[in-house]
């Protein structure tokens, strides 16, 4: 059953849309403070669809993500009491928040750099940095380096793959999609059985 190929084609059309960079910036900003979907899901197809603009897209994602991180920092510094009850009802985010606090205690500002590549959502680190009143300049510098490294890596891989990778993905997207679904289901089953 071919359900992933039409979705892939639609995503690539959206990635070429003239307003796509604005959407990418908005998504990157929101993800760093409250939105659950990482900007990589938009950055990768955009870089694949327009490899000549990959570095521009990586800059947009990085800058917007750091600005969104500042909003997360402000939320942590001034509004954590309002979101803490909700956060405690979200096991994934609460565990991530506790882990972020531990990493800050152990590594200081380097935790923000590591957050760019960690499975713990970056927004958790931005809020935790605000709660801990981390010095703002080191927070911003570590965010630029950590997030930038991640997004430029994604852009570089997509730029390198370019049209060849897009054609290969298009050819095998349904098979890859079903493999991904099977892996997610197997992971969920293993988690439920443990």
TrEMBL record:
<dbReference type="InterPro" id="IPR051311">
    <property type="entry name" value="DedA_domain"/>
</dbReference>
<feature type="domain" description="VTT">
    <location>
        <begin position="54"/>
        <end position="157"/>
    </location>
</feature>
<feature type="transmembrane region" description="Helical">
    <location>
        <begin position="57"/>
        <end position="83"/>
    </location>
</feature>
<dbReference type="GO" id="GO:0005886">
    <property type="term" value="C:plasma membrane"/>
</dbReference>
<keyword id="KW-0812">Transmembrane</keyword>
<feature type="transmembrane region" description="Helical">
    <location>
        <begin position="104"/>
        <end position="122"/>
    </location>
</feature>
<keyword id="KW-0472">Membrane</keyword>
<feature type="transmembrane region" description="Helical">
    <location>
        <begin position="176"/>
        <end position="193"/>
    </location>
</feature>
<feature type="transmembrane region" description="Helical">
    <location>
        <begin position="128"/>
        <end position="155"/>
    </location>
</feature>
<keyword id="KW-1133">Transmembrane helix</keyword>
<dbReference type="InterPro" id="IPR032816">
    <property type="entry name" value="VTT_dom"/>
</dbReference>
<protein>
    <submittedName>
        <fullName>Membrane protein YqaA with SNARE-associated domain</fullName>
    </submittedName>
</protein>
<dbReference type="Pfam" id="PF09335">
    <property type="entry name" value="VTT_dom"/>
</dbReference>
<feature type="transmembrane region" description="Helical">
    <location>
        <begin position="20"/>
        <end position="37"/>
    </location>
</feature>
């Amino acid at each position: 059953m071919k359900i992933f190929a039409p979705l892939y084609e639609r995503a690539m059309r959206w990635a070429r849309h003239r307003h796509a960079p604005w959407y990418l910036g908005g998504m990157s900003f929101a993800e760093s403070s409250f939105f659950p979907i990482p900007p990589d899901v938009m950055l990768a197809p955009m870089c694949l669809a327009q490899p000549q603009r990959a570095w521009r897209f990586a800059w947009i994602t990085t800058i917007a993500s750091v600005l969104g991180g500042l909003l997360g920092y402000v939320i942590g510094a001034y509004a954590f009491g309002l979101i803490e009850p909700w956060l405690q009802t979200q096991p994934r985010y609460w565990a991530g928040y506790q882990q972020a606090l531990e990493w800050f205690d152990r590594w200081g500002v380097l935790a923000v750099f590591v957050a760019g590549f960690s499975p713990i959502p970056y927004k958790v680190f931005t809020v935790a940095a605000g709660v801990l009143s981390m010095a703002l300049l080191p927070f911003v510098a570590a965010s630029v380096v950590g997030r930038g490294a991640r997004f430029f890596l994604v852009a570089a891989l997509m730029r390198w793959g370019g049209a060849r990778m897009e054609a290969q993905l298009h050819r095998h997207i349904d098979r890859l999609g079903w493999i991904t679904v099977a892996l997610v289901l197997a992971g969920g089953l293993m988690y439920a059985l443990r």
